[in-house]
Design a protein that fits this description.
Blueprint: H1 8-13, H2 16-23, H3 35-41
């Protein structure tokens, strides 16, 4: 735990489920995209039409 910059005594006082959620978090680049973000990355609008780039 000292490598994670948290004291064992502090770790023991934390909410277990919240700490597990934090410890299992993925890096931003590895997180799933929302539907809108995925469509925009493919060059589409949410209605399925090609997005116009201005």
């Amino acid at each position: 735990m000292s490598e994670l910059h948290i004291l064992p005594s502090d770790f023991d006082q934390q909410d277990y489920y919240r700490m597990a959620e934090i410890m299992n978090a993925k890096e931003k680049k590895d997180r799933p995209l929302s539907t809108g973000a995925f469509l925009r990355s493919m060059g589409l609008n949410s209605d399925g039409k090609t997005a116009q780039k201005i």
